[in-house]
Amino acid sequence: MGFKENLRSQLDFSGMLIKELAARSGIKKKTIESYLVNNSHIPSVEAAVSIAKALGVSVEYLVSGANSVRDIPLSSLPKDIQDIVIESKKLNPKDRFVVLNMVKLLSKR
Prior knowledge:
Layout: H1 3-14, H2 18-25, H3 29-35, H4 45-55, H5 59-64, H6 79-88, H7 93-107
């Protein structure tokens, strides 16, 4: 998969809207939309970095799909983390996004 597909996949996974990504990344909504159309182009390095940072993934993941945390088998994670993942999958995308941000805040303490 390429940038377009990985960006769409990550947006769907995170439950983030394009306008939210635009606000978080500083990239115009229309520009992000242009990355998602059939004849899309690859963003500049600066734009890709901003988008990846806003989505909480690496640029490498957006470009190639490689090195994604989502590629780690669930069974290889500690039991408590497995439970968190399983329970979070039951949430709607917006609630899952809120929980993810809470976890990020807690991990910075």
